[in-house]
Amino acid sequence: MQMRDAKNGIITDEMKYVAKKEGVDAEKIRRNVARGYVVILKNSNHDVEPVGVGSGLRVKVNANIGTSMDIVDVDAEIRKAKIAKKYGADTIMDLSTGGNLNEIRRKIMGAVPIVIGTVPIYQAAWDMLEKKKAIVEMTEDDMFRAVETHLKDGVDFLTIHVGVTREAVEKMKKNPRVVGTVSRGGTFHAAWILHHGRENPFYENYDYLLELLAEYDATISLGDGLRPGGLPDATDFLQIHELYTIGKLVKKAREYGVQAMVEGPGHIPIDQIEANVKMAKVATDNAPFYVLGPLVTDIASGYDHITAAIGGAIAARAGADFLCYVTPAEHLALPNEEEVKLGVIATRIAAHAVNLTRFEDEYDWDYRMSVARGKLRWDEQLNLSIDKENAIKIRKERYPNSPQVCTMCGELCAIKLLRQYLEEKE
After folding, report:
1. What is the model's pLDDT at position 425?
2. CA torsion, points 354, 359, 361, 367, in degrees to nearest 10?
3. Whole-number mean pLDDT of the chain?
4. Tell me, what DSSP letter sits at residue 231?
5. Nearest to residue 225, comparing CAs of 252, 205, 208, 245?
6. Higher confidence at residue 401 or residue 53?
């Protein structure tokens, strides 16, 4: 196990791989894994290149894919996974909620060599619906069986909403929200607790959950089931209550030698993002922080990949370690392949904007682009673009003969004019 080995002074092959890829010292990786400040995402049953997330490492990007109850097309989801990987996602999450979930997950994992995460409670809920039962009729065994199935299949990190406790659900009644609860997994747990009048089985049996995770060296991603789904609910009592519960869960996971990261909001006004990140880091003793967006406005339907990228860049600069993409289809529909591409690229830009301030090779990419622009080297500019194909397409359509300038300025190009007169003065 990564954390137990790290605590015993052992630098594993996975730590060495991450260190080489990140360009950092392997001993530093070991120390941070031992402390829980870094997680290495890789299930011992999954033949995949590991991904490091956390303190001192590059900000990573996750892309969500998966079927819905209305649209079940496994081939389309495999294409989305391949697109996500092609355009730079470090991981994907299969959030399928329709069709044969076991088959879908296994086909995606077999087709795309990338670190993968899931939400096992979706599996338990879908199994109930297939049996013509209500979701709240699932048992503890159903919940844990779903977790174990995903672990055996090689899922590298599992989102589990352990922090949605009976106490938290009781407080929901006294602390109403404008939007309510938008986390599907969190809502399944809340509904189950209300229906049965009992504690969340994952919270009540957290030791057993950690034993399962330890067996496969998988990372628990402590889900934010009470994240705000609208700006009016940001940084409210419920969000903070769950966060501090999660802080205790992180501590216990570390004692078991289980790697843990923490999921964060959600919809957050731009002036609250830094405070949210710093609060999460303090509450969880610097656990790797995985954020959805955050989205900085609620009115950008069709453009939420942009609102999320804005929030993601600010969050990453403040200390968030892992950005979950948002697509233009967020709040509207299941994303198509083009929307997956746009979501990945927007989030990669946000991550890179922060990474270039911390890593020399990331900054060098921008420096080389600046040099190419200053010398009007168009082929270099196109090749250095984050979406090379799109840059070439635009250039080819607007200037098929590839002259020295572009249609924005033409012969009034500032760079060309100044260089021309400087050369005449020499």
Report:
1. 59
2. 50
3. 95
4. G
5. 245
6. 53
pTM score over 0.85: yes
Beta pairing partners, 87: none
Residue range 178-218, pLDDT digits in tens = 999 999 999 999 999 999 999 999 999 999 999 999 999 99
| Residue keyed to tokens 């993968």 | 116
Phi/psi class of residue 122: alpha, beta or left (left: φ > 0; alpha: ψ in -120 to 50)?
A: alpha
> Which architecture, in CATH terms, is 36-358?
Alpha-Beta Barrel (3.20)
Angle between helix axes 304-318 and 273-283 (nearest 10 degrees) is 50
In the structure encoding, which two tokens stand for residue 287, read together?
């656990």
pLDDT in tens, 50-63: 999 999 999 999 99
d(CA 365, CA 368): 5
| DSSP sequence for 82-118 | HHHHHTT-SEEEE---SS-HHHHHHHHHHH--SEEEE
Where in the chain are all domains bearing CATH 3.20.20.540? 36-358
- Report the C-alpha gap between 14 and 41 in whole angstroms: 9
CA end-to-end span of the chain: 65
Distance between CA atoms of residues 57 and 10, nearest Å: 19
